[in-house]
């Protein structure tokens, strides 16, 4: 059994990763996010479908380094050896030209997508020492490869994730930790609803007239990446809906 820590497992891609990996009977799951009640629902659903799958949930805001340190130091003994870290927690806030940008939105994206990912990674690496197949998967984005109109700060955070993934791959090489970046295009999750602060209609419009990726599509790709033999690492995987060419060009019905 390999122990997987998934950040942002209460929704979207993180939740789908939990469900897909649970279905494979070779993973035990450490799930965290800010909404504990949502995590408990994910756990319940998983355990009714896969009663033997071990799941441990805890509330975490990845922006809180002191909290992470405290929680990591107090993890139950059975959960102190981690094989796989999926750095998935992240968000976008707003879609405005930079001159109209909201500083609070910028801070939330930078603190979550860059600093949060760094804090979690820093505290998790020591817990991977015993693993025979340690692996870190970072959720980047097409926004970490391209910059699109009004995407400014979100794109910058995902470019930072791209740089950090490459840096981790160098720094962690001697430790034998695989590092992979998964870079999706449009995935229909709560992402756009969060970006547009609860405006469901505007969020829905993002995916109008095309078939976006689902969280499950990405989770199945992550499962494939994790299943490669010990000598094979997939460094970086850019994946988009067939109807999307790059960060800006899509075709709609
Ligand atoms: P969702 O909004 O559905 O899920 C985001 C998850 O991140 C939630 O579980 C949320 O949990 C968690 N999260 C957000 N902020 C924090 C925080 N401060 N501390 C802990 N957890 C947090 O979006 P997605 O599933 O789409 O997004 C997952 C990742 O995929 C993100 O990194 C996103 O940037 C990336 N991505 C998404 C794409 C898309 O089109 N959807 C495309 C490319 C990349 P909670 O609110 O309970 O804390
Ligand atoms: C999310 C993909 O292009 O909607 O990272 O910003 S995009």
From TrEMBL:
Highest taxon of the lineage: Bacteria
UniProt keyword annotations, A-Z: Oxidoreductase
InterPro entries found in the cross-reference section: NAD(P)-bd_dom_sf, Sc_DH/Rdtase_CS, SDR_fam
The keyword Transcription regulation appears for this protein: no
Statement: the UniProt record of this protein carries the keyword Oxidoreductase: yes
Membership in a protein family: Belongs to the short-chain dehydrogenases/reductases (SDR) family.
Residues spanning the signal sequence: none
Protein name per UniProt: SDR family NAD(P)-dependent oxidoreductase
């Amino acid at each position: 059994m390999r122990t997987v820590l998934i950040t942002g497992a209460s929704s979207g891609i993180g939740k789908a990763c939990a469900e897909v990996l649970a279905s494979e009977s070779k993973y035990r799951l450490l799930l965290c996010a800010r909404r504990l009640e949502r995590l408990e629902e994910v756990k319940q659903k998983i355990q009714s479908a896969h009663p033997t799958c071990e799941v441990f949930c805890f509330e975490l805001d990845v922006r809180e380094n002191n909290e992470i340190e405290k929680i990591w130091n107090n993890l139950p003994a059975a959960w102190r050896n981690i094989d796989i870290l999926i750095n998935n927690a992240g968000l976008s806030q707003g879609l405005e030209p930079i001159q109209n940008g909201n500083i609070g939105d910028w801070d939330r994206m930078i603190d979550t997508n860059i600093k949060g990912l760094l804090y979690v990674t820093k505290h998790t690496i020591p817990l991977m020492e015993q693993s025979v197949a340690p692996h870190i998967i970072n959720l980047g984005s097409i926004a970490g490869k391209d910059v699109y109109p009004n995407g400014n700060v979100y794109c910058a955070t995902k470019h930072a994730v791209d740089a950090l993934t490459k840096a981790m791959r160098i720094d962690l090489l001697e430790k034998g930790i695989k590092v992979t970046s998964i870079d999706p295009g449009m995935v229909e999750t709560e992402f756009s609803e969060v970006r547009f602060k609860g405006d469901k209609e505007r969020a829905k419009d993002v995916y109008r007239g095309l078939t976006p990726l689902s969280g499950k599509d990405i989770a199945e790709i992550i499962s494939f990446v994790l299943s490669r033999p010990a000598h094979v690492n997939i460094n970086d995987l850019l994946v988009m809906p067939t109807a999307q060419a790059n960060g800006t060009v899509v075709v709609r019905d």
